[in-house]
């Protein structure tokens, strides 16, 4: 007889049950091997990116399978809030869905409908063919599907911040995730995630979520930023990314063992010489999550 399975708790449930904020990182490489390494790191959650990273349905499926053995919550970001794309991701077995660029309560409500089966929504029914129900080995999947999914929407524009209270109050939205990079760009501060106006917009979003009883997370690769937002009431943070960690750590190796002269001689250009000196303010770029030699925050 077939095995009967129970799906793991959602990220929203784990946030609710936790006695501290949940700390995680991005997996942007598209690699199941790297996803598994990140899942075993001791962090609480990993964010597999389908918007800015080289991921398709097959690679996301492989990464979900790779991290399944570990006590970590996998969150997956879709490229955009399209009903068909959301259906495909959910059928893969994505339980924790992050939708980017949600600017209004009306848009949030439409996304909620995309993750729910009729009559509460418009999700297409294909569970018997899909990993989501483990091919009908999860009993009562169709009736209980809504309880197996947590929906997070991204607040990453000035328009979204202006509507954040209404978005947070939308039934079916389980959490907000603030993206300071796109938010800064929309406010006319491209690349300036720590600009005071951007910081205040992030803090306003956190306050709105806390007031509504909805968890709020923030993307914050700079430790001081992460600590500021956690102190303000953020329930979860993403504090790094696999590709950024590899880039900065490999640059640090080159800096230490080759040095300025070797890097300059190998490339023959001034840019490489500048990169080899480390960050502009003398700090180790691998420790801060900033781009080597520029002090710029990674944009996610």
From TrEMBL:
One of its GO terms (cellular component) is cytoplasm. Residues 262-300 are annotated as: Disordered. Pfam families: HpcH_HpaI. It comes from the Bacteria. InterPro entries: Aldolase/citrate-lyase_domain, HpcH-HpaI_aldolase, Pyrv/PenolPyrv_kinase-like_dom, Pyrv_kinase-like_dom_sf. Keywords: Lyase, Metal-binding. Residues 22-248 form the HpcH/HpaI aldolase/citrate lyase domain. It catalyses: D-glyceraldehyde + pyruvate = 2-dehydro-3-deoxy-L-galactonate. GO terms for molecular function: aldehyde-lyase activity; metal ion binding. This is 2-dehydro-3-deoxyglucarate aldolase.
